[in-house]
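To close the section, here is one more complete example, presented without commentary so you can practise reading it yourself. The ligand is zinc ion.
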Amino acid sequence: MPIKKRTIDVVPIEIKKNDKVEVIAGKEKGKTGKVLKVLRDRNSVLVEKLNMIKRHTRPSPTSGQGGIVEKEAPLHISNVLLICGKCTEATRIKKTQTGEGKWVRACKKCGELID
Ligand SMILES: [Zn+2]
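Output:
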């Protein structure tokens, strides 16, 4: 039997945990928040208090009573933009090389290094 290949294209995600991002599409469009987690295998990020969904949980020894909890649902990476700390605008990221040959992230608008 041939091994089934994964068909998901993993695009390089330039957004990191604790980055501030703005949502540019969907029901949370225009809102900003802090990245809690990057889900690389799903090309998505979890953003604090954005895209909340209600989850029903059953009573269990670990979660206690059970009931409804709200939690962040992943936002696709193409629907968020990093907010530059210098020009405070939502921006795409470019990669730039430092004098030591290290690749770092930079704001496409003002050129400020983000890393
Ligand atoms: Zn900038």
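Once you have examined the tokens, check your reading against these statements. The chain has two domains: 20-83, 91-115. The radius of gyration is 18 Å.
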